[in-house]
Amino acid sequence: MSQLALINPPSPRYIVNMVRGIFGILFLTGFLLVGSLAHARQDDPKLDELFSRLAETQSSAEAKTIEQRIWQIWLTSGSDTIDFLMLQGVSYMGRGDLAKALTLFTTVVKVDPGYSEGWNKRATVLFLIGEYDSSMEDIAKVLELEPRHFGALSGLGQIFELREREAGALSAYEKAVTLNPHLEGVKIRLDRLILERDKKRI
Question: Residue 45's pLDDT is what?
Answer without folding.
Answer: 82
